[in-house]
Amino acid sequence: MARDRSLPRRATIHDVAAVSGISRGTVSRVLNGEPYVSDRAREAVEAAVREVGYVRNTAARNLVTQRSGAIALIVHEPHSLVLEDPNIGNILLGTNAVLSEADYQMVTLILDSVRDSERVAEYLRGGFVDGAIILSARVGDPIALAVAELGIPAAFVGHPPNAPEIPFIGIDNLSAAREITTRLVDTGRTKIGMVAAALDRDSGQDRLAGFIEALGKQFNPSLVVDYPLYAYDTGAEGMRELLRREPAIDGVFAASDAVAAGAMDVLRDAGRSVPGDVGIVGFDDSSWAIRCHPMLSTVRQPAYELGRQAALQVLNQLRGGPRPSGGTLLQTEVVWRDSA
Amino acid sequence: MARDRSLPRRATIHDVAAVSGISRGTVSRVLNGEPYVSDRAREAVEAAVREVGYVRNTAARNLVTQRSGAIALIVHEPHSLVLEDPNIGNILLGTNAVLSEADYQMVTLILDSVRDSERVAEYLRGGFVDGAIILSARVGDPIALAVAELGIPAAFVGHPPNAPEIPFIGIDNLSAAREITTRLVDTGRTKIGMVAAALDRDSGQDRLAGFIEALGKQFNPSLVVDYPLYAYDTGAEGMRELLRREPAIDGVFAASDAVAAGAMDVLRDAGRSVPGDVGIVGFDDSSWAIRCHPMLSTVRQPAYELGRQAALQVLNQLRGGPRPSGGTLLQTEVVWRDSA
DNA sequence: TTGTAAGCGTTATCAA
DNA sequence: TTGATAACGCTTACAA
């Protein structure tokens, strides 16, 4: 990190005060639109501000006010997958809508390496943000720990297992998975498998648990394969493996729509018809779902709302509200289309 | 924006100095690993740091050092589309790799509203970042202007028309478009259309210009439709319109792979075979390209490298290097598959 | 309504 | 090698 002090020095309140002939205190009051300033003073200050091209140094202001006006949105994903996850975009959107409305700047911090984690922790400690929203935290996430330790207002989107006492906003992955798997059973499928993913996250674990619950004694562990990522390739590989293990497989729960898309392409190549030979369901109701042929039955996540509520939760803590110890689970909705 | 000062007061250098019996100056030296400190002093300070649980207040440090150790990555997109663009992820990845290596924190600022723009401009002025990388700037982008005015080290990814004098890293959209369109001509297509998009950006404009150049006098303006976004829906709508205008159309250049995917689905529904009846090419070489049936011929963008170079450019300016007035265009590569 | 002055938590300068 | 002390640019009592 190097320094470049060749930039022209920026005007400060001192300059404005000098030029306008008004004291720094009053200049500050004018700048902040506070009452108890005469029109004369205000005008003189405003003229001086224009004259010297003054812009506020927020870093200095932060130092004294002890706040930054920024809130971190921490995304914990291998970078290239940030864009693959259809939910993150909508969560971002919901969060930003609320934060923007409250005049907070949302700053997104993306991290996938240990080095990134340490730097982000340092950044959070540095007073750059007044609060944090943490997406897709993993088990034992160091950033989650750092945030908890710092004690700044925070919320999780999702519900990391063994998480520190930070409130969360999530969906009931288990119930949703149970419900959509039940459909497979009800339509007479008897050899039902699952391509699971992301078992290091609550969402991955809970979807698997729901699948198992729905099948009850019909559950066959050898018909479950799992991979690290919610990705198209996961679905493709997983489906090939499942077909190998049980050529007569007739039902598949894919841990996400992207996974389902990969699985469907493999099924087609293997000469299986959907939903004729194999019924398949996904999770997310992302753009993948409607681009599949046939279109995918899946679970709709209220991603935008998740982002909104997490932001509201942080804002509430910022306003001195309590930090709830538990969390909130939002409703999901099963969308029935043609794949099962 | 509210304040919550009920947090426990954090220990400062004063506390460390008091507890260790060492002056603030020396404490600061120890903390920054500077030379000229005795082992005795160092140990005393380190013990005191642990005892009082001291962590540095970066805001205060920034005030005096005039730097933040953070660099903004500004993404100018309608939020939900951030995730649709296959390049952004890789650009992020490349940028972060370089910045992380140099120990800078990358903070991503996403904006789509005017309100967002103003807040981000304010944020940039606030001294929160030492430099900025601007993605997908539009014509007359207010943030680009703000950055230029601020005079902080900066670079564009892409080459906005009429951009302020900020260096850019981009690709030669025009040549690439010309090259891939030529393929359509060379394979004997005679009624060639284009589904253009994002004409408010350099990429959109240049791809259209390349298309026009490649066709020469064969160019037929009525076979060009254009839409605001590089999106699947753009391709679907655009293809329907093109078929309406010219049912015998036999070649299509889609402004991006997502657009091409939408167009291909419409072609299929309309009973046209690809590449038999219609040859089609895209742009990006994103995951869309290999999920199409048949797989898409397209242009590969060095997105990761774009991000890398933009970051290097900013770092170089930060180190006092010159701010070049022009830009750099990276090579693209045409990937021939089965769609044309 | 305004000016003065004391911080905010660091780093940096300069004697000692 | 160390300790005072003056910045950094701003807000905020408090006094006038």
UniProtKB/TrEMBL annotation, chains A, B:
<dbReference type="InterPro" id="IPR000843">
    <property type="entry name" value="HTH_LacI"/>
</dbReference>
<keyword id="KW-0238">DNA-binding</keyword>
<dbReference type="InterPro" id="IPR010982">
    <property type="entry name" value="Lambda_DNA-bd_dom_sf"/>
</dbReference>
<keyword id="KW-0805">Transcription regulation</keyword>
<keyword id="KW-0804">Transcription</keyword>
<dbReference type="GO" id="GO:0000976">
    <property type="term" value="F:transcription cis-regulatory region binding"/>
</dbReference>
<dbReference type="Pfam" id="PF13377">
    <property type="entry name" value="Peripla_BP_3"/>
</dbReference>
<dbReference type="InterPro" id="IPR046335">
    <property type="entry name" value="LacI/GalR-like_sensor"/>
</dbReference>
<dbReference type="InterPro" id="IPR028082">
    <property type="entry name" value="Peripla_BP_I"/>
</dbReference>
<dbReference type="Pfam" id="PF00356">
    <property type="entry name" value="LacI"/>
</dbReference>
<protein>
    <submittedName>
        <fullName>LacI family transcriptional regulator</fullName>
    </submittedName>
</protein>
<dbReference type="GO" id="GO:0003700">
    <property type="term" value="F:DNA-binding transcription factor activity"/>
</dbReference>
<feature type="domain" description="HTH lacI-type">
    <location>
        <begin position="11"/>
        <end position="65"/>
    </location>
</feature>
